[in-house]
Amino acid sequence: MIVLAGTVALLALSIPLIAQLRSLDADRAAGRTTVATRMGATATRVVYSILVVVAFAILPVAWAVGAIPTGGLAAFLTAPLAMRLGDVVSHRRGEELRSAMREAFLLLASFAALFGLGLVLLP
User: Which residues lie below 8 Å from residue 5, measured CB to CB, with a gap of 6+?
Assistant: First the structure.
Protein backbone atom coordinates (compact mmCIF):
# COMPACT_ATOMS: atom_id res chain seq x y z
CA MET A 1 0.00 0.00 0.00
CA ILE A 2 2.97 2.29 0.44
CA VAL A 3 3.57 2.08 -3.30
CA LEU A 4 -0.01 3.17 -4.01
CA ALA A 5 0.27 6.02 -1.53
CA GLY A 6 3.57 7.18 -3.00
CA THR A 7 2.44 7.11 -6.61
CA VAL A 8 -0.88 8.78 -5.85
CA ALA A 9 0.92 11.42 -3.78
CA LEU A 10 3.23 12.23 -6.70
CA LEU A 11 0.26 12.60 -9.05
CA ALA A 12 -1.58 14.70 -6.48
CA LEU A 13 1.45 16.99 -6.10
CA SER A 14 1.46 17.59 -9.85
CA ILE A 15 -2.06 19.05 -9.91
CA PRO A 16 -1.29 22.35 -8.14
CA LEU A 17 1.53 22.92 -10.60
CA ILE A 18 -1.00 22.97 -13.45
CA ALA A 19 -3.11 25.49 -11.53
CA GLN A 20 -0.06 27.64 -10.93
CA LEU A 21 0.93 27.50 -14.59
CA ARG A 22 -2.60 28.47 -15.54
CA SER A 23 -2.49 31.60 -13.36
CA LEU A 24 1.22 32.37 -13.77
CA ASP A 25 0.85 35.71 -15.57
CA ALA A 26 -1.85 36.96 -13.19
CA ASP A 27 0.14 35.83 -10.16
CA ARG A 28 3.24 37.64 -11.39
CA ALA A 29 1.25 40.81 -12.09
CA ALA A 30 -0.29 40.69 -8.61
CA GLY A 31 3.07 39.98 -6.94
CA ARG A 32 1.99 36.57 -5.61
CA THR A 33 4.69 34.08 -4.77
CA THR A 34 4.05 30.55 -5.99
CA VAL A 35 6.29 27.71 -7.07
CA ALA A 36 5.65 28.67 -10.69
CA THR A 37 6.44 32.36 -10.17
CA ARG A 38 9.68 31.47 -8.43
CA MET A 39 10.86 28.80 -10.86
CA GLY A 40 9.35 30.05 -14.08
CA ALA A 41 7.10 28.26 -16.55
CA THR A 42 9.71 25.97 -18.06
CA ALA A 43 11.07 24.66 -14.77
CA THR A 44 7.53 24.19 -13.44
CA ARG A 45 6.68 22.12 -16.49
CA VAL A 46 9.82 20.04 -15.96
CA VAL A 47 8.95 19.41 -12.31
CA TYR A 48 5.41 18.47 -13.35
CA SER A 49 6.77 15.97 -15.86
CA ILE A 50 9.20 14.49 -13.35
CA LEU A 51 6.43 13.93 -10.80
CA VAL A 52 4.24 12.11 -13.31
CA VAL A 53 7.06 10.05 -14.84
CA VAL A 54 8.35 8.97 -11.42
CA ALA A 55 4.82 7.96 -10.37
CA PHE A 56 4.67 5.62 -13.35
CA ALA A 57 8.30 4.49 -13.05
CA ILE A 58 7.78 3.30 -9.48
CA LEU A 59 5.30 0.64 -10.62
CA PRO A 60 7.59 -1.73 -12.52
CA VAL A 61 10.36 -1.30 -9.96
CA ALA A 62 7.97 -2.13 -7.12
CA TRP A 63 6.69 -5.13 -9.09
CA ALA A 64 10.23 -6.34 -9.84
CA VAL A 65 11.21 -6.31 -6.16
CA GLY A 66 7.96 -7.97 -5.12
CA ALA A 67 6.43 -4.96 -3.39
CA ILE A 68 3.27 -5.16 -5.51
CA PRO A 69 1.61 -8.03 -7.33
CA THR A 70 1.14 -8.05 -11.09
CA GLY A 71 -2.34 -6.56 -10.73
CA GLY A 72 -0.84 -3.29 -9.52
CA LEU A 73 0.49 -2.75 -13.02
CA ALA A 74 -3.09 -2.16 -14.21
CA ALA A 75 -2.47 1.51 -13.40
CA PHE A 76 -0.39 1.61 -16.58
CA LEU A 77 -3.67 1.68 -18.49
CA THR A 78 -3.78 5.40 -17.63
CA ALA A 79 -0.49 6.09 -19.43
CA PRO A 80 -2.17 7.40 -22.63
CA LEU A 81 -4.09 9.94 -20.55
CA ALA A 82 -0.87 10.95 -18.77
CA MET A 83 0.94 11.41 -22.08
CA ARG A 84 -1.84 13.50 -23.59
CA LEU A 85 -2.01 15.59 -20.41
CA GLY A 86 1.77 16.05 -20.47
CA ASP A 87 1.54 17.35 -24.01
CA VAL A 88 -1.16 19.85 -23.00
CA VAL A 89 0.79 21.05 -19.97
CA SER A 90 3.95 21.40 -22.04
CA HIS A 91 2.46 23.45 -24.84
CA ARG A 92 -0.42 25.49 -23.45
CA ARG A 93 -0.72 28.39 -21.07
CA GLY A 94 -3.29 30.46 -19.24
CA GLU A 95 -6.92 29.51 -19.64
CA GLU A 96 -5.96 26.86 -22.19
CA LEU A 97 -4.93 24.79 -19.14
CA ARG A 98 -8.45 24.77 -17.65
CA SER A 99 -9.25 21.40 -19.21
CA ALA A 100 -5.87 20.10 -18.05
CA MET A 101 -6.98 20.50 -14.44
CA ARG A 102 -9.99 18.25 -15.04
CA GLU A 103 -7.83 15.71 -16.86
CA ALA A 104 -5.26 15.73 -14.04
CA PHE A 105 -7.97 14.86 -11.51
CA LEU A 106 -9.24 12.17 -13.87
CA LEU A 107 -5.71 10.77 -14.19
CA LEU A 108 -5.28 10.68 -10.42
CA ALA A 109 -8.64 9.00 -9.80
CA SER A 110 -8.34 6.47 -12.61
CA PHE A 111 -4.72 5.63 -11.72
CA ALA A 112 -5.68 4.91 -8.10
CA ALA A 113 -8.83 3.02 -9.10
CA LEU A 114 -7.06 0.80 -11.62
CA PHE A 115 -4.20 0.14 -9.22
CA GLY A 116 -6.66 -0.91 -6.52
CA LEU A 117 -8.85 -2.90 -8.90
CA GLY A 118 -5.81 -4.67 -10.26
CA LEU A 119 -4.76 -5.67 -6.75
CA VAL A 120 -8.22 -7.09 -6.05
CA LEU A 121 -8.64 -8.92 -9.34
CA LEU A 122 -5.05 -10.08 -9.90
CA PRO A 123 -3.43 -10.50 -6.46
Answer: none
Element (H, E) at 58: helix 41-64
- What's the distance, Cα to Cα, between the start and end of the chain in Å? 13
Q: How far apart are CA 123 and CA 118, in angstroms?
A: 7
Closest CA to 58 of 67, 45, 71: 67
pLDDT tens readout for residues 91-108: 998 888 999 999 999 999
pLDDT tens digits, residue range 6-43?
999 999 999 999 999 999 999 999 999 999 999 999 99
**Amino acid at position 43, single letter:** A
Length of the chain: 123
CA dihedral 117, 11, 52, 23 (to 10 degrees): 140
